[in-house]
Design goal:
This protein has 152 residues and is an alpha+beta fold. It contains one helix and six strands, in the order H-E-E-E-E-E-E. Strands 1-2-3-4-5-6 form a six-stranded antiparallel sheet. The longest helix has 44 residues. The protein starts with 11 loop residues before the first helix and ends in an 8-residue tail after the last strand. 7% of the residues are buried. The mean pLDDT is 83.
Amino acid sequence: MSEPLQSTQMPADAAGDLAVSRKRSRPRRLGCWLLTAIWFLMLLTPCGLFYLAANGEIRLEHGQIPEPHAHPRLLISLISESADRGLRLESSTITAADSELSICVETSVSFLLWESSGGNQNVKFCDCYARADQDSAWILAATSGAACANAG
């Protein structure tokens, strides 16, 4: 008694449902990967805080700008003075590079203080540099206590 072979074809309804579930599963997979990445970032947060506590700052620098130490791409540092306690957040962007011979860097400094002596201490300033030719060193041409006027 042999049983007849069963067909491997699906009914039309089942094939349509499978196609719809495959279309829905791609966004679900992407969402799962995104949530997993966010979860791992949350798990790594204590590592960043331990690094900040041990070194006093987290610094990312620009590559090819004048005085990269004075104009970090991102700087997070601890403030622990007698009157002020908290975090200092500093970032800088290149706002104007007219040619290879002049450049302006806008730096923004913000404070997240949980103990403060008062007053708004957040500031933006602009440093413009120039040089005679591409082989010369950068020279500070102008400093402004506000955002760069020729931002672009």
